[in-house]
Amino acid sequence: MRKIILSIAAIILILATSLSFIACTQEQTPTQQGAENQTGTTQQGTGEPTVIRTVTAEEWDEAFDLYFKNFTMEYTSYSPDETYYLKAEFLENGGMHQYQVEHGWGEFYTYYNEAEGKWQEYHGAAVVPDWEYDSREAYLEGNYGDDVGVFRSILPSFKGLFDEFTYDEAKGEYIAEGLPVSAFEGTPMNVSFKFEDKKAVKLYFTVPIPDYADCYLQIDLTKYGTTTITYPERITNPTDENVDED
Length: 246
Prior knowledge:
Strand order of the largest sheet: 8-7-6-5-4-3-13-12-11-10-9
Order of helices and strands: HHEEHEEEEEEHHEEEEEHH
Structural class: alpha+beta
Shape: globular
Oligomer: single chain
Helix content: 10-25%
Number of helices: 7
């Protein structure tokens, strides 16, 4: 099965070997730039701050639950030595396409075969599925999601943390500094999120550790409801000839 990285230990190891996974310079960090801006405005005649929010706590949690939703994810981690980029497209029926080749992750498709009621996963140029799942439950327990843990670990770790973030109205971002992130074994991180139309569209992470000051991790979520996947014909219309060639 595909290996899914979920822990900060793995991330630190990758950083140490120049495969970056988290944070940016202090000058570049949106979290730090907006930290001193106070959330809200002042009501005339009361002196009481009015907290400005663009989403409710319920909408916040819903934005981080993207299972069987239609969208495109782009994952970028940067260090002075190397940039790591992964792109994944997701469909409401559970189909997906992930592309990343620089570090050996490769390309794969998951195709929902409606006629058979199965999710079929194809790696590289495979003409027969590498794995098949005959139920949604089996698919969820198997390989559904991306290879860097965004689905299974990173996004869900922010559910219930709405009140931990301050909204910077000038930047249009939700900001938290030194927030322990469960997806990374509780490591304190500087985090900023941007929402549009109640949907998370940009997540930006830095680690307040000197050794990683020149690194960042950014997740962009786009094309909600408009993402499409062009599957190769070998997947959508397999033939005996193709199978024999494999």
